Amino acid sequence: MKILLFGKDGQLGWELQRSLAVLGNVVAVGRDTPGLAGDFSRPADLVDTVLAVRPDVVVNAAAYTAVDQAEREPDLAYTVNTTAPAVLAQTAQRIGAWLVHYSTDYVFDGRGRTPFAEADATAPLNVYGRTKLEGEQQVQHTNPRHLILRTSWVYAARGSNFARTMLRLAQERTELKVVDDQIGAPTGADLLADATAQALRQVVAQPDGLAHAGLYHLAAGGEASWFDYARLVLQQAQSRGCRLQVQPDDIERVPSSAFPTAAQRPHNSRLDTRKFRKTFGLELPEWQSGVRRMVEEIL
To answer: Staple partner for 92: which of 36, 97, 111, 256, CB 3.0–4.6 Å?
Structure first.
């Protein structure tokens, strides 16, 4: 199997290079890969890359993810998150290839407390969510050979992330306030990548190649607020002897209104993952286990 991976330098793309390697030959492309266009702000150029590689599977781990910046750059966000996936879907369909595409809990309005299922009505609150939803729809309507995986609160030890920020602030400041009214599931890029590889292996092995095609929710088990997430990060750091000015139990809970942002965030980011788990026979570990591993790696 030949796999063409876009977005190789991001958190998820980095992990996918590892997880997909067991399935076959992975051609990994970033924005500046010599000889292979990977700049999603220039969607037309992506066609040449797909046709040059002629993969069996295209995996799109590239996206415009700066949620607040998207409010100021809606055209660029639309190009990267909607137009580019549409181009990939069209070109993959042209050569008979599968497309794996990632989306987000931000396609929902975040109302209620019940985890959102794949069939629930979408109503994004911001530009980022709208462009990701339209990207999903373009893929669904263009190429029947697709896996669309919606996820939430993605993190990795590599690069800047929420855990690193909390660790730095707890060492620099004497008080720390964290939002407690947004609920989701912190999901490791490594978990996403491994689950993707397992699902993709099963998809391509199906006698009826389209039996498992479709849209799935994929996130770690359990749920947490950003406050819960921050407290676990500091608890793990404290257990390793890390010197903190703010102790885990000293973090102050605050509402989202305490930190106004350009883009409105959903309060309920819970995703129902039963469809994914049942279809592919996979278990998704609780969010705490991945966060603890990440903090260990950071420290």
So the answer is: 97
The answer to whether 150 and 157 have CB atoms below 8 angstroms apart is no
Q: What is the CA angle 225-229-231, rounded to 5? A: 115
Active-site position among 64, 78, 106, 128: 128
Query: pLDDT class for 30, splitting at 50, 70, 90?
Result: very high
Which residue type occupies 88? Answer: L
Q: Is 207 helix (H, G, I), strand (E, B) or coil?
A: coil
Residue written as tokens 């599931």? 185
Return the closest-CA partner of residue 189 out of 181, 197, 179: 197
Longest dimension (CA), the chain: 60
Conformation bin of residue 68: beta by default, left when phi > 0, alpha when psi is -120 to 50: alpha
Mean per-residue pLDDT, 212-228: 97
AA identity, residue 267: H
Q: Does 64 participate in catalysis according to the annotation?
A: no
Phi and psi of 14, rounded to 5°?
-60, -45
Confidence of residue 35 (pLDDT cuts 50, 70, 90): confident
User: For residue 12, what pLDDT is reported?
Assistant: 95
Summarize the confidence of residues 245-259 as an average pLDDT: 94
Instruction: Name the CATH superfamily, with its identifier, for domain 2-159+187-223+270-286.
Output: NAD(P)-binding Rossmann-like Domain (3.40.50.720)
d(CA 265, CA 86): 26
The whole-angstrom separation of Cα 247 and Cα 253 is 14
Map out the domains of the chain as residue ranges.
2-159+187-223+270-286
Mean pLDDT of the chain: 95
What are 228-249's pLDDT values in tens digits?
A: 999 999 999 999 889 999 999 9
